[in-house]
Automatic annotation (TrEMBL):
One Pfam assignment: DoxX
Keywords from the UniProt entry: Cell membrane, Membrane, Transmembrane, Transmembrane helix
Protein name, as recorded: DoxX family membrane protein
Family: Belongs to the DoxX family.
Subcellular location: Cell membrane
Membrane topology label: Multi-pass membrane protein
Top-level division of the source organism's lineage: Bacteria
TM segment ranges: 9-28, 60-86, 106-125
A GO term from the CC aspect: plasma membrane
Secretion signal, residue range per the UniProt entry: none
Length: 133
């Protein structure tokens, strides 16, 4: 029995569900924090609304396996922006328990890279492992 497609489903669901929690939080609290970060960095505040694409739309694409590679690419970009705007000072830091300070963010980034490379597998709305799925 081949379990590759089941593994892809578990990987996709884990990434999507965990990032969706962040998206729901942004819906409830609004983009004000992100607007402030972007303004402070000299970037247009309107870009803050892209966080909804990265934390709501992209995870849903990944979860259902519809354009999951595009969704994963969006999450990768979203995480790289988060690293740059919020976490740059923590890149080389270790936390109190000896782990990387950014292990959660790193997990999101590298799992998104894995989904980007692997695709959705057959347990997806598309049911194929085409280029976009």
């Amino acid at each position: 029995m081949h379990t590759d497609d089941l593994g892809k489903l578990v990987l996709r669901a884990t990434l999507a569900i965990l990032i969706l929690f962040h998206g729901v939080s942004k819906i409830l609290s609004g983009p004000g924090y992100i607007v402030g970060l972007l303004s402070h960095a000299g970037l247009p505040p309107a870009l803050a609304y892209l966080v909804y694409v990265g934390e709501i739309v992209a995870p849903l694409l990944i979860l259902f396996g519809v354009w999951s590679r595009i969704g994963a690419l969006i999450v990768v970009v979203n995480m790289l922006v988060a690293f740059g705007l919020v976490h740059s000072k923590q890149l080389m830091m270790i936390n109190d328990t000896g782990g990387w300070q950014l292990e959660l963010q790193g997990f999101y980034l590298f799992v998104a890279v894995a989904v980007l490379l692997l695709g959705a597998g057959r347990f997806s709305v598309g049911g194929k492992n085409g280029f976009l799925n």
